[in-house]
UniProtKB/TrEMBL annotation:
The gene is AP1G1. InterPro entries: Adaptor_Complx_Large_Subunit, AP1_complex_gsu, ARM-like, ARM-type_fold, Clathrin/coatomer_adapt-like_N, Clathrin_a/b/g-adaptin_app_Ig, Clathrin_app_Ig-like_sf, GAE_dom. It is found in: Cytoplasmic vesicle membrane; Endomembrane system; Golgi apparatus. It comes from Ameca splendens. PROSITE patterns: GAE. It comes from the Eukaryota. Residues 745-860 form the GAE domain. Keywords: Cytoplasmic vesicle, Golgi apparatus, Membrane, Protein transport, Transport. The keyword Membrane applies. This is AP-1 complex subunit gamma. SUPFAM superfamilies: ARM repeat, Clathrin adaptor appendage domain. Residues 1-24 are annotated as: Disordered.
Length: 865
């Protein structure tokens, strides 16, 4: 009885499946079939993604970065959803929008595979966006790019030239070495086709293939035979680019293509002499882009080749004289022409013409053209010194330019133009520039004046006056070694002591803010104070000064807030020295005793020691405080003085108040080992055997034994040299000009070191008094984005030579080739042996200390013969 109600309930429930079937049938009877398919397709296509133009317009309405970021994230989410649903209809549109977001800097890597799907499509519009996306989103670091190799190969053989062009562009843009090896044969076939559209693209693609896989270069050699015969300028342009790349990468190719120089000259002549062509005309000049490319190729082909240079001299002269300079297009062609003339073995008249073109550039109103002209003249001044000298006044006028880059280049070029004939006039202009220039120029300008005055000073008085003028004008900006160098110069100029101390005393009364000037003045007053008080100056009218007035000035320096601790040390030492030159000994004792309790430890130590001299060792005081003897000339480089004697190197500390310490000759070779770093060179020195002083450093060739000694006879042992400094080290202090004119020497420059962005170039001169002395000027430049600080250049030569290093212009090599550090090396080569040198470079770059050794064995024969 209990089961009946349940049975009734169970029986009364309708079956769900038949019910659903009946409802579907009823719905099918009410809605036609075509309406159902329309609704289904409508559901799949909604919502349609916005177009690229709408997206750009929407993003540009964003007022803040956060609002723009929100719009991008929302659209990226919609694009990701579309990609997951495999929506083929709007894939092209979505990838295009993704590429726009990538251009704005937002991540778009999730669209890489979609680009490959578009490339595989048969529609040209899809392929175009797909290949564009591949070029932007893919590179050889991602393995995904290998998946498109087969698609590119198929498209390279496509029947439509535009599809083939897309494939060539993509391969030439991002093809890896593996892709280039697989597809180089297809590119070579297209390079031989008669279709100009494909040939120019294939030529550029071949350039990329050669860069990635240089060994495939010979594959394209047969195809290059007829490229220059093409009339289409696009094919000619890309062909010249391909030939340039091949010549730069292979010396064999360079020799092979030198036979094409007459053909290139003929093409360039036709471009110059042809009439107006609207298809290729740019500002009245026929196809300047092709002209520039041909000039660059001629520059490569004519370098170090007499026949090729002779063949192109006439056409270069025509280009230089017939090109219109009123438009920037003509200036670009003239600039390339100048570079070509300077690089090939051109005639002297042609080189003068090129430098005159650069001189006209200096008068141009465009700052970029003036900067380019100054940079080019700076590169050529070593080889064509006299020609550049003709434009000296124009170059000096550029020192007054408002643009800082132009002023810096003009300053560097002005120093390069200084010689013994124009030293007075150039120094006058440069000192005027030093007075008015910005603080950022003062350090480099002061260093340049010091070096130029040391090399070309016409007299010692002029040298001293010039250095004092620099110290008075920019004393706070000079290098640290300027003070000891000037002290040494004054000490060695015995006849100028009275004049110098009087000038420095006057300068001290006018200004005590320039600390280097105050230090030199204090030292000189302490040494030659008796000459100041006695009024024995013959060079100018003497001044009347009492002992108390001199002591008042020095005491004022001790208490001045402007004085640094180093300056106070100089002043206290000067006062102490005057105790043997003045009669006011009691006053000096009182001053010295006061500073025996100074909070400055250095000053306190000096005062305590000086007090001890007054009390316990008063009998020794006159001998200890007598005048300094003449100082021997040493070559400074960084924080140490490196004394060069007969090829041996001896670092020693710099101390201007004491004569150079005498070291044992037996340690000099070991000191050189320390200089050059003892990791890769081992000296053969018998430490258990007594060493004769006369042969000190005789094992230097063993130390430098891994230098290349082949290719010439064994060096003849040098005659014994006294242990004192060789006479030629003091030549810089002579009253006559030290060097010949650079152009008279005719010695080509060379690159001694080029690594990690640091480039060291050597230029050569000959010394006037002794033709056996080669004067090498190093030019250090830095092409990286960060400056190189604490730069130190050191050098060593075999024992048959004598070497001297002068002070560098700076210890900071500016970034991006914005400046040059120069340093002078003098090498005495009495036996005319082939010059060999080992150099050591030390600097700090991006916070890291860098140290490197290098050997220089390829000096030009003119530098040592």
């Amino acid at each position: 009885m209990m089961s009946k109600p349940d049975d009734r309930r169970t029986a009364s429930r309708p079956d769900p499946e038949p019910l659903a079937a009946r409802r579907s049938e009823a719905r099918a009877q009410l809605i036609p079939d075509d309406s159902i398919s329309f609704l289904a397709s409508l559901r799949l296509r909604m919502p349609a993604p916005i177009r690229l133009r709408e997206l750009i317009r929407t993003i540009r309405t964003a007022r803040t970065q956060a609002e723009e970021r929100e719009m991008i994230q929302k659209e990226c989410a919609a694009i990701r959803s579309s990609f997951r649903e495999e929506d083929n209809t709007y894939r092209c549109r979505n990838v295009a929008k993704l590429l726009y977001m990538h251009m704005l800097g937002y991540p778009a890597h999730f669209g890489q595979l979609e680009c490959l799907k578009l490339i595989a499509s048969q529609k040209f519009t899809d392929k175009r966006i797909g290949y564009l996306g591949a070029m932007l989103l893919l590179d050889e670091r991602q393995d995904v790019h290998l998946l498109m190799t087969n698609c590119i190969k198929n498209d390279l053989n496509h029947s439509t030239q535009y599809v083939q062009g897309l494939a060539l562009c993509t391969l030439g843009c991002m093809g890896s070495s593996e892709m280039c090896r697989d597809l180089a044969g297809e590119v070579e076939k297209l390079l031989k086709t008669s279709n100009s559209y494909l040939r120019k693209k294939a030529a550029l693609c071949a350039v990329h293939v050669i860069r990635k896989v240089p060994e495939l270069m010979e594959m394209f050699l047969p195809a290059t035979k007829n490229l220059l015969s093409e009339k289409n300028h696009g094919v000619l342009h890309t062909s010249v680019v391909l030939l340039t790349e091949m010549c730069e990468r292979s010396p064999d190719m360079l020799t092979h293509f030198r036979k094409l120089v007459p053909q290139l000259v003929r093409i360039l002549k036709n471009l110059i002499m042809s009439g107006y062509s609207p298809e290729h005309d740019v500002s009245g000049i026929s196809d300047p882009f092709l002209q520039v490319r041909i000039l660059r190729l001629l520059r490569i082909l004519g370098k170090n080749d007499d026949d090729s240079s002779e063949a192109m001299n006439d056409i270069l002269a025509q280009v230089a004289t017939n090109t219109e300079t009123s438009k920037n297009v003509g200036n670009a062609i003239l600039y390339e022409t100048v570079l070509t003339i300077m690089d090939i073995k051109s005639e002297s008249g042609l080189r003068v013409l090129a430098i005159n073109i650069l001189g006209r550039f200096l008068l141009n109103n465009d700052k970029n053209i003036r900067y380019v002209a100054l940079t080019s003249l700076l590169k050529t001044v070593q080889t064509d010194h006299n020609a550049v000298q003709r434009h000296r006044s124009t170059i000096v006028d550029c020192l007054k330019d408002l643009d800082v880059s132009i002023k810096r280049r003009a300053m560097e070029l002005s120093f390069a133009l200084v010689n013994g004939n124009n030293i007075r006039g150039m120094m006058k202009e440069l000192l005027y520039f030093l007075d008015s220039c910005d603080p950022e120029f003062k350090a480099d300008c002061a260093s340049g004046v010091f070096l130029a005055a040391e090399k070309y000073a016409p007299s010692k008085r002029w040298h001293i006056d010039t250095i004092m003028r620099v110290l008075t004008t920019a004393g706070s900006y000079v290098r640290d070694d300027s003070v000891p160098n000037l002290i040494q110069l004054i000490t060695n100029s015995v006849e100028m002591h009275a004049y110098t101390v009087q000038r420095l005393y006057k300068a001290l009364l006018d200004d005590i803010s320039q600390q280097p000037l105050v230090q030199v003045a204090s030292w000189c007053i302490g040494e030659y104070g008796d000459l100041l008080v006695s009024g024995q100056c013959e060079e100018e009218e003497p001044i009347q000064v009492t002992e108390d007035e001199v002591l008042d000035v020095l005491e004022g320096l001790l208490v001045s807030n402007l004085s640094t601790p180093v300056t106070r040390g100089y002043s206290l030492t000067a006062i102490m020295k005057l105790s043997t030159r003045f009669s006011s000994v009691n006053r000096i004792k009182k001053v010295v005793s006061i500073y025996g309790s100074s909070i400055d430890v250095e000053l306190q130590q000096r005062a305590v020691e000086y007090n001890a001299l007054f009390k316990k060792y008063d009998h020794m005081r006159p001998a200890l405080l007598e005048r300094m003897p003449i100082m021997e000339k040493t070559a400074s480089n960084g924080p140490t003085e490196i004394v060069q004697t007969n090829g041996e190197t001896e670092p020693s500390a710099v101390e201007p108040k004491h004569p150079p310490p005498v070291t044992q000759p037996t340690n000099q070779a070991n000191d050189l080992l320390d200089l050059l770093g003892g990791n890769d060179v081992v000296p053969v020195i018998q430490t258990t055997m007594p060493t004769k002083p006369a042969s000190a450093g005789g094992e230097l060739l063993d130390l430098l034994g891994d230098l290349s000694l082949t290719g010439g006879p064994a060096p003849v042992p040098a005659p014994s040299v006294p242990t004192s400094q060789p006479p030629f080290l003091l030549d810089g202090l002579s009253s006559q000009p030290l060097f010949n004119d650079i152009a008279a020497a005719g010695i080509p420059s060379m690159t001694a070191y080029n690594k990690n962005g640091l480039k060291i170039d050597f230029t050569f001169e000959r010394a006037n008094p002794n033709p056996n002395i080669a004067v090498i000027t190093i030019h250090a430049t830095n092409s990286t984005e960060a400056e190189m600080t604490d730069f130190v250049f050191q050098a060593a030569v075999p024992k048959t030579f004598q070497l001297q290093l002068l002070s560098p212009s700076s210890n900071v090599v500016p970034a991006l080739n914005q400046g040059t550090v120069t340093q002078v090396i003098r090498v005495l080569n009495q036996q005319k042996q082939q010059l060999r040198m080992r150099i050591k470079l030390t600097y700090t770059h991006k916070g890291s200390a860098v140290q490197d050794l290098a050997e220089v064995n390829n000096f030009p024969p003119q530098s040592w013969q």
